[in-house]
Design brief:
Layout: H1 2-54, H2 58-82, H3 87-117
Length: about 130
């Protein structure tokens, strides 16, 4: 029986060594991909934040909010991939659901506000906060 197990154990050892080498190559490549994905997600979030703070058109502000949502979602997917966990990806589904609901509400609000004052400038609607 030992004569049968010796070749099998040596084959398992060689396969395990090959898999370790592939795992090291994969982790080096995935570290670069993770860093790139996190950089892109941070860039998306910063572009959305700057656009939200600078622009006063309500449609542009809502689009910038969506851009920030997408940056956060990409970061969560990247971190979930890094930890080999699906909870980040599940949370992204909830983020996308909230983003869709926010877009529907925002569109209705923008249409209503445009009908009232014929403008979408946030400065015109700043008196709403004082009510």
């Amino acid at each position: 029986m030992n004569a049968f197990l010796a070749p099998v154990s040596s084959a398992i050892a060689s396969v395990s060594t090959a898999l370790e080498g592939m795992g090291q190559a994969f982790s080096a490549a995935s570290e670069a991909q993770i860093a790139l994905s996190l950089a892109i997600s941070a860039l998306l979030f910063v572009i959305g934040l700057v656009g939200f703070m600078v622009r006063r058109n309500m449609i542009i502000m809502f689009l910038c909010t969506e851009l920030m949502f997408q940056g956060a979602a990409l970061a969560m997917i990247t971190v979930a991939r890094m930890h080999m966990d699906v909870s980040g990806q599940v949370f992204v589904i909830f983020i996308l659901t909230v983003a869709a609901a926010e877009a529907a509400l925002a569109l209705g609000l923008v249409v209503l506000l445009h009908r009232r004052r014929e403008t979408l400038s946030a400065e015109v609607w700043s008196d709403l906060g004082e009510a």
